[in-house]
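call fold(seq) -> tokens
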Amino acid sequence: MELKNFNNSYKNKAVYILTIILSIAFIAFGYKLNKVDFALQEYSQSYKAEVVSINDITEEKIEYEYEDLSSTTIRFTAKITNGELKGTTVNASQYMDEIVAVNPKMVEPKDMILISSLTARSGVGEEWTFLEYDRTMAMVWLVVSFLLLIIVFGRKKGVNTIISLVFTCLAVFMVFVPSILKGNNIYLSSIVVSFFIIFMSLLLLNGANKKTLCAIVGNLGGLFIAGILAFFISKVLNLTGIIDDDTMFLLMLNTEKPIDLLAILWGSIVIGSLGAVMDVSMSIASAMNELAENMYDKNFKSLLKSGLNIGQDAIGTMTNTLILAYIGSSLAVVLLLVANYGDKLLLFNLEMIVFEIIQAVIGSMGILFAVPITSLFAAYIYNMK
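ret:
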């Protein structure tokens, strides 16, 4: 028994180390393969600065079409806190125009902000101008707190969760996104990155065992169904892929080989539903593993029934989670469209709204199919002598 436990421990450590090495290799090779350079437009460099004092506040009227609108100028002194100009004190300006619906808060002493040397409003020379509030440290503390809480509550698995999260983000932003910008096949890139995330995450979190195998099979099955449905539904609904201004701008990035916008929509659905499908598959595989180890008289039928019952509970919560996540991410757009479109028939046939609906529905269908696939495979695997 002790020898068996030692072998299992050795095997899990070997798989863990190998998974990390292969993940680093995948990301490094993928980045090198897909790295693309664009002729970027030159921008004035921004600097971090601390507001030292407010020097002057003036207000003037500006003629705009048929009305006069006010413009407030706040002149202040700021001390640059980074870059080659660190320690330099400069005079800068913040403009708050009535023509803009929402202006940022008026700067105050000790505020941390971003400034840049831009063309003056008068058109003569340059002046230091307020760009944005510096939110870097607040975001860093928020992320660090989140990661610490994962470690506190998850302990060893919390550390592995952070490692898998880092690899997932690197795979998306260093492999998947560059591959699209380079003009590679988006369908293939989505599949490869999804496979990598599934295998890497589940192996790091649970090791190489039956439970992980069942979760992987269920995940791949649910994702395969979602991908097939997304492909055919986009054809049936005659989607073009142009759902907003951002997608139109994508066509201008590479005029020689334009980005396939329908493939972008497909990739969005697959990548977007990946996490939820993985969660359901792992939950069912883990619960059925506990049942199989503690069942006195286990058999395929009883294990399958238990898996489907567990899946029914997971379906309700995860489907709600997925749909609410999509609604929340596009709430401002939904409010704007509902408020301005009196023709509801046209509203619900706009490609922007249609895409949001099919993204949520097809992602949820991936969860639905992951339940029986995981349950069937787990019932077979756990019943093997």
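The CA atoms of residues 2 and 8 lie 10 Å apart.
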